[in-house]
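Entry:
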Amino acid sequence: MKNENKMIKFGEDVEGYSIPVLNEREIRAAAGMLFVLMFISIFLAATKGEFLMLKYAVVIFLTDILIRVFINPKFSPTLIIGRLVVRNQVPEYVGAKQKKFAWIIGIILATTMFILVDLVNSYSPITGIICMICLIFLFFESAFGICLGCKFYSLVYKEKAQYCPGEVCDAKSKQDIQKTSGVQLLIVLGFIVFIVLMVYIFNNTFSVKPHNLFGPEKSAQTK
């Protein structure tokens, strides 16, 4: 019975931490892999009407997250791969409670997708919205280390989350290197204006289909 309790557990006991924790670095790595899988699948479904890869991706996503929540995160295939990828990096420990809450949200979204896409074999604005939500959640986790699902933990349970990534749960003043000046904000605004102008000026030029540099079409033009 003792061994069973060790296998079916959420989070790991680490010396110096009063609650079970998880390694944020391997979670981000796993989120990045799932983001790529879901992005390619959704892209093929949206642009070419090919739903086969999306159906497989939904099953993979749902199976992986079910293992995390109901068995043990350390038996999740994507987290195992993530652990191998970041094995030489110093762990960044985060509280397991808020991650479990966030992944339960993921189970609800993935189960809905599984029913509508895999079982009913349908698509609709509902599946489109869920796909976008999943992509946003995965992107923020992998790119910025921000767990959007964890943000709702404190609202639902009325308690402060512990051991958040980057210590964002703890109120503290920003260091100088974290502060953003007015000049930097203007640079970002200017860059956005630059992108808009570039699209406006070069859109027709860039829309022309490229030719094969070494193909017969190029050879014919040079004659």
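The radius of gyration is 22 Å.
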